[in-house]
Amino acid sequence: MYRFLVVIEKTNNNYSAYSPDLPGCVAAGDTVEDVERNIHEAIAMHVSGLKEDNEPIPVSHAIAEYVAVDSA
Length: 72
Fold this sequence. Notes:
- By secondary structure, the protein is α+β, with helices and mostly antiparallel strands.
- The chain has a single domain (1-72), classed as Double Stranded RNA Binding Domain (2-Layer Sandwich).
- Helix content is 29%, strand content 17%.
- A 3-stranded antiparallel beta sheet has the order 1-2-3, with helices on one face.
- The longest helix has 21 residues, at 32-52.
């Protein structure tokens, strides 16, 4: 099993998602649920393509953290 960080962003009209560890692997959707499903499918297809091409599967190095700051 492979695990990759996914970043989901709200755009003007929908949601977009990408994985920092898989450059070029992106997805979009009308809702968060749509984009989650679409990026899951995109990552699965991306990894499958890498395997078919005998390319290495990237090791996930990306992490995410929320940072809280005072508004003062």
